[in-house]
Amino acid sequence: MTRRELALLFPLLALYVAAWAIFPERPDDEASYVVLAERLTDGFYVTGDDDAILNADPGSPDLWFGPGLPAFLAPLVAIDAPLSVLRLTSVFVLLAAVLLMYLLARDRWGPRAGLVAAYGLGLYLPFLGLLSNLHSEVLAVLFVVVGMLGVARHLERGGAVWLVVGAAGLAGLALTRVAYGWVLTITLVVLLVWWVAVRSRASGRAAAVLALALALCLPWLAYTYSKTDRLFVWGNSGSLSLYWMTSPHDGDLGDWHQAHLVFTDPDLLPHRAFFESLRGLDLAEQNAEIEREALRNIADHPGAYAENVVANVSRMLFNTPYSRTLQQTNDLFYALPNAILLGAAALCVLVLLPRRRTLPPETGVFALLAATAFGLHALVSAYPRMLAPIVPLLAWLMVLALVEAGMLRQSAARGTPLPSRSS
Question: Is the pTM of this model over 0.90?
Answer without folding.
Answer: yes
